[in-house]
Amino acid sequence: MIKNTVLTVVLLNVFLFSFTANSLTCTELIKKANKVYLPTEYYSSGLITGIKAGDTIKFQDNQEYLVQRVISVNNADGIFEIPDNRVLRVPLKNGAEYSRVNTVNQTLDGYDQLLEAGVPVPRILDYTRGTRILVEKIDISFHFVDLFDGQVKLSKQHLLRVQEEFSEFVKKFYRFNSVGDMHKGQIVYSSDRGWLLLDWKDFHRLGNNVNPFIHCFWDMTNLPNVYDRDMVMEWWRSSDLAIAAARNQNPESYFKMDYWEAESIIRAAVR
To answer: Are 212 and 242 in contact (CB under 8 A)?
Structure first.
């Protein structure tokens, strides 16, 4: 009896998640919200991790996308480069935390607020809520953290220009105390677009008494053997000056603020 049940499940999985001539049919789609921790549609990590370059992802609405490169598959979503300088992102369910949320919907719901503020982000080109999102491909020159761990070597003049551009980038965040899921790994530099926030979620906190970049810098100051702490502190203070200037405030209040104080202010504001 147990063997027959297992065989039935295996056959069902083969039928639902089939690979045929390099065409991956996502007919696992779409589980309805009939469980307490399944508020929307999503894909299993087992399905997404099987996708490779050259596969065609076919969705239930017959939209097809050729995968040119697998950018990443993590515990939240799968991200794939597709033709015409686009990136396809699909949400995953993997573990208790991510069964409660849908990263595609979080990105969509946080987009307009950033756009209205003038924050440089990849443009959303098309989407289907709960299922997929297509954004423009960004040609990344380097990641923010690469400047501080020695992976990127710039001339003194080039570094100064990049830092000045970063200050202008910071000013775009003047209306936020924090931006959903913004951390040091989400900030990138493109030679043709400058600094951008590559990814975000929807839980932004409006306010004008915290530098929203404090979390990015704080993380690096705690790893002095990995990151150039003097350089981190210099850029941190420069960002304090930039955000204070955008808010017409005295930057001294930011200079004296630490991570925990910032967190308490943000938490108090949303109670």
So the answer is: no
The tens digit of pLDDT for each residue in 45-80 reads 666 777 788 888 877 777 888 899 999 988 788 899
- Number of other residues whose CB lies within 10 A of the CB of residue 245: 14
Distance between CA atoms of residues 118 and 108, nearest Å: 16
Pairing of strands 23-25, 56-58: parallel
CA distances from 109 to 25, 96, 180, 256 (A): 27, 22, 11, 33
pLDDT tens string 226-249? 999 999 999 999 999 999 999 999
The CA distance from 46 to 144, in Å, is: 31
Output the CA torsion sign for 171, 175, 179, 183: positive
Strand 43-44 and strand 86-93: pairing? parallel
Q: Identify the CA nearest to 120 among candidates 167, 86, 169.
A: 169
